[in-house]
Amino acid sequence: MADEVKSFNVDYTGQYRGASKLVVLPTTTEQIVDVIKLCDLWKLGIVPQGGNTSLTGNSTPTFDEVVISTRRMNKIISIDADTGTVVCEPGVIPANLEQTLESASYDLTLPLDIGSWDISCIGGNVATNARGYRTLQYPTLRHSIVGLEAVLPNGDVLSLMEGSQADQFGMDLKQCLIGSEGMFGIITKVAIRCPSRPKFTNVGLLVCDDYDSVIKVLRYARKEFAETLSAFEYMDQGALGVAERELYMKLPIPFNHYGTVRRKKFHAIFMEVSSSASNKQSSNVMTSFIDKVRNLGLCCYGMSSQDKQESEKLWGPRRSVITACKATGTVFKFDLTITPEQLPELVHLLESVSASDRTLASGDGKVQRVPDGPANAARIKDLFVFGQLPTGSIHVVATVEPGTCDLARASLLGVHQTPACVTRLKMALYNWLRMRKTSPFSRLLSLSKISDEQITQWTHQPDWDEHRFQGFPSRDLQLSIKKAWDPKGIMNPYKSWSFIDT
């Protein structure tokens, strides 16, 4: 494989690898049209790709599909300061757009804040319906998209830009493309409604001794801050420890120096309040809140930021946790949707993972293999939980020791063999969610990221086949839409619809 295309064949975690020999980097919509029409004629699979920061392999070829990268389509076309509408191409990097918007000429802010802020692309953010940290203030990117343009699988250009903000006639077709992860077409232009920039933003870090206190802090924060509470992120001790260990991100809190307090479990909360009040008032609000919850015995330590630099420092471990995982081993990430009250039970489930699937740390901090089990088997090194408690969007991350992850790939076929220890973890998660579902479809769909993007994407296993989706009208309707938009099945194949003959 030529060096020029290697980076397009490997996902962000280094876990998934394809074998594409053809990468196209267009600079205009017309060039994308020409490429897609040829692929449609010859029935060649297409993988749309932006920053290639997906954690589940959806932006990476499975076999030898044609990669169409939009990273060179990186122009900001227009910014309307009066309506707050920004029109840009899909290759624009969110951090670069935010830097432009924060100038005095516009004083706007992008309604998105994600860990891959400075390396992902807007087109990919829209295609995945990126959520970001500030979901309490800006739910998902879908809510802010007022128009888009896309090239369909047959090469037609679907323009939903003109009059898209007020047009109430017919279906809102752009919603089919938002969150579709490239299954229906390639986004070539986006119009985003951006709100006015908050005058001041204050970040707080709180540490609790137990999870019950975390829930109480969440309830208290919602009552105290109401709509000004923009973010509430949770990280367990394992997640925070990985960021500190691998990236040397030492938080400025007393027990962060390896003493007696560090040995007990703790739970970290990252909070953000956006306010139009003065900087002093905003800072006092967060400081006052921390004092109140400490007096109530709900947290053992808390601190708030006084400026933008301190805010970025406090957010550091949360923003960089996946990057830290890459340094510790092969990353396996699972996205779940659960209620905050179910999290302790989930943590207990993870703690019950067989010791033969884990590695242990000795007293001096060095990782050692547990004595039982095959010497050459892959082992889970780190297993932790983090995510957004108010929305129930929780991430479970397992890392497998470097050099022990038994990944078998067939030549030029991109076949991925999941380690047995991770497969057992997946099955445990699936069975746990299935037994505790509150809605027959929504809970299974919440785990479809595990099955469709990480299992059937690479190796179709009987335990995860399509029979579990039978009888779900929503899933059947999605399949019907897929067949209508992409009858030849060329757009991002072998992923969510790998078991469907299109």
Strand count, sense and closure of the main sheet?
7 strands, antiparallel
* Radius of gyration, in angstroms, nearest whole number: 23 Å
The domain tally reads: 4
Spans of at least 5 consecutive residues whose pLDDT stays below 50 are 256-263, 361-375, 406-415, 438-469, 498-502
At the first level of CATH, the class of the largest domain is Alpha Beta
Strand content bin: 15-25%
Roughly what is the average pLDDT, rounded to an integer? 80
Mass-distribution shape:
globular
Domain FAD-binding PCMH-type: 16-197
InterPro entries: FAD-bd_oxidored_4_C (IPR004113), FAD-bd_PCMH (IPR016166), FAD-bd_PCMH-like_sf (IPR036318), FAD-bd_PCMH_sub1 (IPR016167), FAD-bd_PCMH_sub2 (IPR016169), FAD-linked_Oxase-like_C (IPR016164), FAD-oxidored/transferase_4 (IPR051264), Oxid_FAD_bind_N (IPR006094)
Family: Belongs to the FAD-binding oxidoreductase/transferase type 4 family.
GO molecular function: (R)-2-hydroxyglutarate dehydrogenase activity; FAD binding
